[in-house]
């Protein structure tokens, strides 16, 4: 297990560093994020609910903190989509989202409710990397 040694957002659990939007309340289906130094991991909490899924094969997309912050700018309309170069999203007809990592086969699929609660957290700054300035120096 990787220990995170810097402050986490207030909604982040302390046991493993993964956290979700505060708008997700107690939902078990959500976009989960973890800051690990200059890396950011993204996963789908639904994967672990299925006992047939092996924890060691859990699909996780990992990007740099700088790429992550550009991604968040894209989602809030402060940067053109595709600027980050590593994450892409496709909106499904029912309002869900398919998140893909460039150069990998990893695909994360979210329902409309999951994606909307994630976007609400993005708009509130809940997923901003806490130490991006320190990592750049």
Task: Describe the 3D structure.
The chain has 137 residues and is of the alpha+beta class. The chain has one domain. Helices cover 23% and strands 23% of the residues. It has 4 helices and 6 strands, in the order ββαβαβββαα. The protein has a 3-stranded antiparallel β-sheet. A 3-stranded antiparallel β-sheet has the order 4-5-6.
Brief descriptors of the model:
3-stranded antiparallel sheet; disordered N terminus; 4 helices; alpha+beta; 137 residues; 6 strands
For the record, the count of structural domains works out to: 1
How much of the sequence lies in strands comes to 15-25%
Number of strands: 6
Please tell me how large the radius of gyration is: 14 Å
Give the proportion of residues in helices: 10-25%
**Strand numbers in spatial order across the main sheet:** 1-2-3
List segments where confidence is low: pLDDT < 50 over at least 5 consecutive residues.
Answer: 1-15
Indicate the mean pLDDT: 83
Shape verdict: globular
Number of helices: 4
Helical/strand content category: alpha+beta
- Note the gap between the termini: 27 Å
Sheet with the most strands?
A: 3 strands, antiparallel
Instruction: Return the string of H and E elements.
Output: EEHEHEEEHH
């Amino acid at each position: 297990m990787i220990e995170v040694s810097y402050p986490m957002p207030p909604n982040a659990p302390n046991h493993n560093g993964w956290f979700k939007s505060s708008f997700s309340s107690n939902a078990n289906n959500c976009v989960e994020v973890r800051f690990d130094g200059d890396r950011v991991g993204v996963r789908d909490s639904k994967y672990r609910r299925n006992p047939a899924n092996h924890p060691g094969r859990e699909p996780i997309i990992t990007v740099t903190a700088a790429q992550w912050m550009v991604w968040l700018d894209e989602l809030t309309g402060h940067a053109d989509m595709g600027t980050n170069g590593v994450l892409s999203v496709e909106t499904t007809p029912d309002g869900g989202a398919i998140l893909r990592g460039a150069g990998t086969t990893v695909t994360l699929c979210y329902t409309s409710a999951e994606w909307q609660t994630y976007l609400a957290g993005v708009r509130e700054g809940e997923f901003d990397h806490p130490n991006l300035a320190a990592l750049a120096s």
